[in-house]
Amino acid sequence: MYTFDYKRLGEPNAAAALMNADADAKYLAGGQSLLPTMRLRLAQPSALVDVTRIASMKEIAFKGDTLTIGGAACHAQVAANADVKKALPGLADLAGRIGDRQVRERGTIGGSLANDDPAACYPSAVLALNATVITDRRRIAADDFFVGMYETALEPGELITAVEFPLVERAAYEKFRNPASHFALVGVFVAKGADGVRVAVTGAAPSVFRAKELEAALSTDFSVVSARSVTIPPDNLNDDMHASAIYRAHLIPVLAGRAIERANSF
């Protein structure tokens, strides 16, 4: 690992100012992806700007029909929070099944979204729930946020300060996980709200995406049978040593059906 400076600040604007002054600096949230990359000498930031102690970025607030989660809230905090369990139990359930206990205590929602790992769980929730990513500069709709593999709409130095989730009638997540990494080989988040049904898939492609075939079927009949009747084309899905594209395509409607069952159990 190369040498670097470590800086810890107490408010988002100060952290952003440091980043804007040093193009080679990186934000440190949970560090679950960044630190291993640094240990392998694949990344050489000049400084790490730690945002995990910024109080406003760890807050979780439930007001009216919106749940707001600070960008530095760790997975364990989201999973255990009473407001999240009440407002969006499917989101609390997802957070409680990310990785293992150590990962859940360190990893953050903002770090997960900024990294945009193709197999991460949170992107599917943000996309399916039509959430809004709030940064130190602007508000970004979920449909505009995820661009490609490890690529988002964030600009250099832009900091995710919070994520705003609208409440929905029913929502849940189900995944078929890699037994070693606990990442999703395929993960499906299903949400039914006033504006219809949204289904987001992670792990199956280079980036999270909406499954329009499932959305159309479930908008007509929000049921397990309806989900499993859908055929997902394997085109553009990942095909690797862990699973073929055809197998991933088969898993998507199966997991969507399981997610509906889970949503009905909350």
Automatic annotation (TrEMBL):
Keyword Flavoprotein set for record: yes
SUPFAM superfamilies linked to this entry: CO dehydrogenase flavoprotein C-terminal domain-like, FAD-binding/transporter-associated domain-like
Domain FAD-binding PCMH-type: 1-170
InterPro entries in UniProt: CO_DH_flav_C, CO_DH_flav_C_dom_sf, Diverse_Substr_Oxidored, FAD-bd_PCMH, FAD-bd_PCMH-like_sf, FAD-bd_PCMH_sub1, FAD-bd_PCMH_sub2, Mopterin_DH_FAD-bd
One annotated GO molecular function: FAD binding
Record keywords: FAD, Flavoprotein, Oxidoreductase
The keyword Oxidoreductase appears for this protein: yes
PANTHER family assigned to the protein according to its UniProt record, in alphabetical order: XANTHINE DEHYDROGENASE SUBUNIT C-RELATED
Protein name from the UniProt record: Molybdopterin dehydrogenase
